[in-house]
Amino acid sequence: MTQDGSRAPRLTLVLGGARSGKSAYAERLIEALPPPWLYVATAEAWDDEMRARIAQHRARRPAGWETREAPRDLAGVLAGPATGRPVLVDCLTLWLTNVLLAEVDLAAETAALIEACARHPGPLVLVSNEVGLGIVPDNALARRFRDEAGRLHQRLAALADRVVLTVAGLPLVVKGD
Fold this sequence. Notes:
CATH class: Alpha Beta
Largest sheet: 7 strands, mixed
CATH superfamily: P-loop containing nucleotide triphosphate hydrolases
Distance between the termini: 14 Å
Strand content: 15-25%
Shape: globular
Number of domains: 1
Protein name: Bifunctional adenosylcobalamin biosynthesis protein
Structural class: alpha/beta
Strand order of the largest sheet: 3-2-4-5-1-6-7
Organism: Methylobacterium isbiliense
Pathway: Cofactor biosynthesis; adenosylcobalamin biosynthesis; adenosylcobalamin from cob(II)yrinate a,c-diamide: step 6/7; Cofactor biosynthesis; adenosylcobalamin biosynthesis; adenosylcobalamin from cob(II)yrinate a,c-diamide: step 5/7
Oligomer: single chain
EC number: 2.7.1.156, 2.7.7.62
Family: Belongs to the CobU/CobP family.
CATH topology: Rossmann fold
């Protein structure tokens, strides 16, 4: 239940381009629910610029958020003890990058993630970059990333109760309320 008494969707997928406002919007969705809130971060701080981005995300969140790092074992975190607390995962495309670069069985990792999302008691908000609206990338790894992200988004959108596309900070509901 949200703080205004309405029922929250069990699974929400929030998509958008870079700097579209998707993370801030997803955080507001979770913060409309009673705490405690869990933020599952998939980013790895490989350089100063990424460390600054992570710090900016942390600074934006008020007290009441617990953060867990899951650059690779996202399914494991989501399949953990089912408390029913609101969970935000940010972001799936960073997780996908980590899995692709680790050169592990992507199909098995994706299947485990989909299963964990399907079983998660919710509410669960997943954030991901929509990367299929641009030009065709010029190298095989980038094309594979774009294709795998598109397939992952399609599978999660089919599973989701609500899908939102953010554009210029505005949420556009594609599926659900």
